[in-house]
Amino acid sequence: MSTTTHQPQKSEISFTVNGQRATVHAHPMERLLDVLRQQVNLTGVKEGCGEGECGSCSVLMNGVLVNSCLVPILQANGADIVTIEGLASQDRLHVLQQAFLDCGGAQCGICTPGMILAALHLLSKNPQPSREEMGEALSGNLCRCTGYTQIVESVAEAARRSTGR
Amino acid sequence: MRSNPADYELLAPANLQSILSILADEPGSWRPIAGGTDLMVQYAAGNLAARKLVSIWGLRELRHIDVLPDEVRIGAGSTYTDLRANAIIESEFPLLSTAASWTGGIANQNRGTIGGNIVNASPAADSLPALLVYEAELILVSVRGERRVPYVSFHTGYRQTRLAPDELVLAVCMPRRYSEYQAYARKVGPRNAQAISKVCMAALSRLAGGVVDDIRIAMGSVAPIPLRLKETESTIRGHRVDPALVSMAQQRAAAEIQPIDDIRSTARYRRAVAGNLVAEFLNRLGSGSAR
Amino acid sequence: MRNGNIVGRSVPRKEGHDKVTGRALYVDDWTLPNMLYGATVRSTIPRGKIKNITFGCGIDWQQFVIVSAQDIPGKNCVALIGEDQPCLADGVVNHPEEPILLLAHRDRHLLPKAVAAISIEYEPLPAIFSIEESERLSEIIWGEENIFKTCLIEKGDVHRVWEMADHIIEGEYRTGAQEQLYIENNGMIAEFDPRYGITVWGSLQCPYYVHKSLMKLFNLPEDRVRVVQMETGGAFGGKEDYPSMIAGHAALLAIKSGRPVKIIYDRMEDMTATTKRHPSRTRHRTAITHDGQILGGEIQFTIDGGAYQTLSPVVLSRGAIHAGGPYYWPAVRIQAKAVATNVPPHGAFRGFGAPQSIFAMERHMDEIARVLQISPIEIRRRNLLKPGQTTTTGQIVSEETNLDKLLNRALELADYDSQKARFESENARNSKKKGIGIAAFLHGAGFTGSGERYLSSVVGVEVLSDGRLRVLVSSTEFGQGTNTVLCQIVAETLGLAFDDVLIAQPDTNQVPNSGPTVASRTAMVIGRLVQSAAIGIRGTLTSGGFLKEHYSREEFLAACRAYVEKHGPFRSLARYEQPADVVWDEEKYSGAAYAAFAWAVYIAEVTVDLTTYSVSVDDFVALQEIGKVLHPVLATGQITGGVAQGIGFALFEKVVWDQGRMQNGQMTNYIIPTSADLPPIRVYFEEWGNAHGAFGAKGIGELPMDGPAPAVVNAITDAVGVALNSIPATPEDIFDALSLNNQAGVISSTTVNRD
C-alpha cells in the first residue's frame, strides 16, 4: 500500500446547536458526538457504545433523531442540532423532563438525555402514541436501570400533560 | 473510539457529477459514505480500511422516490424512514416498507439508506430479500454513464458485488405488478428490535384457480448472499396448497439454504426456522389469510 | 416526631433535575488542565509466560508515558478480600485481557494504534475454561486445587432422609455468565500532587474499596489517598471491585507523568475485560414424600470465579445460603465451592450468587412437581417456611412472615388458575404455546453473617450554617435512589422538609466509611444508621438547650443555626452495632445469616412461538414483601429494572466464549431487552415491617434479580413440555430441546465459521 504524504486538514464547520451558532475546527471524520461533547461542551450527549445501538448519543439533527456517534461532523455542516441542553427554557423544564422526574423515568440518568430526545421526536410526530408505538419508538434507546416501565409511563404522562388531558 | 480522525479524509461535493469524477479519477481509492450506519461502526471499531471517503449523504440526485406508471424508482440515498413514509411503497411494496421498519431503531432508520444496505452487501440485511422477490433492478452510474443490472445477479459472493470501483448505485427500480400477489415477510432475530437477523424471509405469491400460479421466496442470513429459493419455488409452483405440499416445501427450503453456525445462531436452528417460515407462509395462503 | 408525609411518598429524586437536563457530571464529562488519556495493553492469550515485549515502529514512543509492573511502588495487587490479583501482570498472565502495560498520551486518538503496535511474545501454558475442566485438576492454575473457597451448610441429619423418602429426585441446573452492561462504561481520572497524594474521581460504587486498594498499591497512608465518586451511570455490582483496578492504572500513569490522567473504557474493552456474573452449576438431590413434603437433601453449588479470587468467596457464601430457597428443610447439606478458570475474574452482579442458586431451586421445585404430578403451586405451598421454623442455616422465621398469604395474593394478581386453564385449552389448536410459571424466593439484606459487624460502618449527619442538614456517607447513588432515600429518612425522623436535608458527594476526604454500596444494605442498614445520627443531632440540640422537646420545623432549623453560631459546625456520627438478636456462627456457618429477608413470589406468562422458538414474556407479576415502601416510585423502579435484567438473564444474555475471551463484546451481539421486548411489569408490595430497618424497610436492590429467570423458564416448560435447566434459554436451545424430545430428524448442516 502506497503511503500518502497528504495529511488531512481540519476544516471549519458551522452548525446551529440549541438555537446558537457554533463554529468548530475539526477533522471531517470527527464524530458529531465528540465535537458536541468536547468542542461545544455539551456533555449531556453521552457515549454508551460507539456503535449506534444504545441511543445514549441521540440528538435531533434537522428535526430528525440520529445517533451522533455515527455522524461525521462534515455531514452536520449547516445542520440544526438539538441536544438535551436545549430543552429546558430558562428555569422551566420541558414537559418531558418534568414527567421523567415525576414518574421515575430517570434512574442512573446516563440514557436519559437520549431517551428524552427520542420521546420528544415521537411526540412531535405522534402526540398520543399507544403503548406499543412508544415501545417501538424508544426501542433504539437502551436502558439498563428501569426495565422501561416507568419510562413509558413518563412519556405517557408527558403526552397527557401536553394535550391538557 | 479506535480510529484517529486525523487519518481520514472526507469530502462532501455538492453534486453527483463531482463525486463521480472523484471516483473515476482514483478508482477504488474513495469510499462513498451515505448515512454512516455501517461505515461509522467499522470506523469506531478501528476496522475501516478505507482512508478516503466521499459523502453522498443527502444528495438530491440520490434521495428521491419516483412513482412512474410501470415502476417505482427509489433513489439509493433514500433512508428507511423515507421508504416507510411513502404511501406507494407501503401499499404496493409492503415487503420493503416492513423490512425498513425492522432495520435498527428510529435513529438508524433516519440515516441508513437502501443504497448503503445494498452496497454493504451483508447477507443479513433486512431489505435485500424483498428486493429479490420484487425482482428489482439497480441503476448503476459512473462517468461512463448508467447501466441497469438485475438485482438478483448483483451479489457475487460474501460481501462481493458487481459494482465497479468507479460506480455508485443510483437507484433501485421495482416493477409495479404485484397488486394481485399476497405478501409475507418475517424476520427472526434475537429480540424484537435492533437485531441482526438470524433468518429473514420475504415472499410473494399469486393464486389462480386455487393453484399457486407464481411464487417467489427470498431469505437473508442463510447463505453468503441474500438468496432466492428457486428450488423451493419450483416445488410449489403449479400446485395446490395442501398439507403434503407444505411439508415438502418446508423440507426443500431447509435443504436448499446454506446456513452456518456463527456468533448469533446455529445452522440447524436456521434450517428448521427457514422451513417453518415457508410452511407458515403457505398455510396462510391456503387459508387465504396472507396479506 | 413523624409527620408521615416524606417517607412513603414519592418525593423528587435529589439529583434528578441534573439528570434530566444533562447537567449531571459523569467521569468522561470532566477534564482537568493538562490531562492525558490512558490506555491498557492486555494479554491476548489465556495463560502463559511473557517472554518478550517489543515496541513497534511507526510510533514515537518518546511522546508516550509507559507504565509496567516495575513502576508499582507498593504491592502489585488489587487488594480486596485477597491480594492475588495483580494490578499489572508481571511475567505471567492468567486470563485473556489481563492488563500488562499502560500508556498515556495527550491525544486520545493516538492510543489505539500505539496499543496495537506493542507486540508481546508469550510462552503459552495449557488453560482451563470450565468448571469441569477446573475440577479435573489436570492443570492447577490457583492454589493447590483450583479452589478459591468452599462453604458447607449442614442442618439436621441428611443421612436419614433417603430411606424415609417416597421419591428421590435429582437435577442439575446451570447458569451462564452475565454482563452487567451499565450504559456508562468504566472510567477514572487520577491526579498526583506531592503535597496531598493521590486523588481519583470516577464511576464507582465503593469509594473506600478503591481507597484501600490504592493505599496498598502505592504504599501510602490513608490521608494521602482521596477517592471521589462522580455521577455513575449504572453499576449493578460491575463497579464494586473493578474501579480499584482502573484507579490504580490511572494513578500509576498520573504519578509517572506528573499530570492528571483519564482512562475511559470503550464498550468492547469494558465487556471483554471486566467482571461478569459467576457462571454456576447446581446439583440437587432431594428426598420427598409422596405428597410433596421435602424431607431433606443435598445441594452442590459450584461457581466459576475466573482467574483470581476477587469477590468469589462472598458470592459463594450468599449463593449457598440462598440455595434452599424460601422452603423448610428439616435436613440439608449444602456444599459449595468457587473454582478457578483462565477467564477474566467474575465479580459482583446484582443478586451475587442468589440468582444462580435460586434459579436451580425454583426449577427443581417444578421438576419435583412434575415427577409427583402435583401442581407447581401446591409443591411450593406445602414447603414454604412458616413462622417459628428455621432456614437452612437455622435462622428462625419471624412471626409476621406469611408466605402462604403472599403466594395467594400473587396467584390472584396473575389470575393464575384461569390463565393456566385457558392456556391448556388454547395450546392444543395453536402453534404459539402459552405457559405460566412461578418462582418463590427470598433475599437477605445486608452483608452476610458477621459481615456488617466486620464492616463496622460509620455514617455522619452534619449541621450546616444555614440550619440545613447534610448526610455524610460513602454509600453511592447510581440510579437506585440512595441520595433520595437517605434524605427522606432524616427529614421524616426529625420532622423537617425534604429540601432541608442534603447529601454530600461521596469523597473519602469528607465522608466516613459507611461501607460499600452493595448487598441491598443501603436503605436498611445505612438508613437505620443515618436515622440514629439524625436523632443524635436532635439530642445534642435539646441537651444544649437549643431545642424544646416539641418543636416545629422552623424551630429546629433555627436551633441548628444557633448552635453552629455558638459552637461552630458539628456533625453527629453513628456506628453500626450488630443487633443482639442477629447471631451468626462463622465456624459452623449457621445462625442468623441476615438481619432481614425480603420475600417474593413472581409469576410470568410467556408465549413460545413454535415457528421461531422465540419466547415473548406477555405478562409479569412481581409481588414482594419489603418491610416498608420508603418511596413508591423508586421502589417500583428497582423492581422493574431488576425484573428486566432477570428476563435478560433467562432469555437473551448469552456470553459467547472462545479460549476464555468473550467474542460478542458489542451491544449489537450481546443482547439485552429493548422497550419492544418487555411487557409492562406489574409491581406490588406487601409491608410486614422490619425491626432492623429505618421505618421498617428491608433492602430490595437485588431481590428482583432472583425470581424472573426461573419464573420465565418454568413458564416455557409449562408451555412446551420440555425441561430447560440451563440459562440463557435461547430459541436455539429451545429448538434443540424440542428436537431431542421429538427425536425429529435434524437435517445435516455445514459449519463454516466466516466471522
Provide the number of structural domains of chain A: 2
Catalogue the unreliable spans of chain A: 1-5
Instruction: Please tell me the total number of domains of chain C.
Output: 3
Main β-sheet of chain C, in a few words?
Answer: 7 strands, mixed
Roughly what fraction of the amino acids of chain C lie in strands? Answer: 15-25%
Oligomer: heterotrimer
- Please report the first level of CATH classification, the CATH class of the largest domain in chain C: Alpha Beta
Query: Helix/strand-derived class of chain A?
Result: alpha+beta
CATH homolog superfamily of the largest domain in chain A: Beta-grasp domain
In the CATH hierarchy, the third-tier topology of the largest domain in chain A is known as Ubiquitin-like (UB roll)
Mean pLDDT of chain A: 94
Shape summary of chain A: globular
Rg from alpha-carbon coordinates of chain C: 27 Å
What Rg of chain A do the Cα atoms give?
Answer: 17 Å
Kindly report the CATH topology of the largest domain in chain C.
Answer: Aldehyde Oxidoreductase, domain 4
Query: Count the strands of chain C?
Result: 28
Secondary-structure element order of chain A, N to C = EEHEEEHHHH
